[in-house]
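All the exercises in this workshop are built on plain-text protein records. The record below serves as our worked example for the rest of this section.
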Amino acid sequence: MTTEDVLDLSNTVLRCEPCKFYNLTQSQCLRNKISGLFLVHFNTRSLVKNLNKITDWLNSSSIFPDVIAISETKLYGDKHTMVNIKGYSFIHKNSLTNAGGAGLYIKSELMFRERPDLNLNDDDVEDLWVELFSPFKGSIIVGTIYFHPNNSVNEFSRNLENTIIKLNNQRQTFHILGDFYINLLSDSRLTHAYLNSLTTLGVHCLINKPPRFMHNCTPSLLDHIYTNDNLHYLYPVLFPLDISDHLPSFY
């Protein structure tokens, strides 16, 4: 990308509530306020192992998101045939290692197409991108990412920036969810540079509270939600669900 290719959208204004921790009842009430696309992200640490917990939550809460993003699917061989959810289409990308993997559940009534042209093309990343159509005005891009730990943040950041620049130049509204394994609570120069590069591109991070808690460990913010959606009022929420050591999030 050349300098001329980059749109400076750092002054983009987002209409958004501060991120909050909600229980099930509060989450059910909040659902009625969401007027745009309704998305949720789960880090499952094995989708086969924890699928029942997700479907139990869907059925008990009567909250059925338009898109469910999954990181750390750990699907191998034909295991993807074991993780269907009624009322949803499922696409996935397996990891080349014993960890990772990404998946998207998309409501069956939504028309979509996969967008492999947006892939980060990084061996340390599993990512999926779809373009959703009606009933929304125009189309909306949804991506999910799993970035494997202990790899180059600079290289990952450059690849993500290139995809976002492409989306900006196409005037696309987008939502990106996943486990980025970059701790946004860290006060490091690397983290600040990463966030500043996204802000310049008009990208807003909706989660600013720690979704990850481990015994005797400092809480961390590894699960991110990014968007440039300034058409809808957004309500980012973290909620308790015993799936992994990462709290699920939705908005």
In short: The longest strand covers residues 125-132. The two ends are 32 Å apart (CA to CA). The chain has one domain: 3-250. The mean pLDDT is 89.
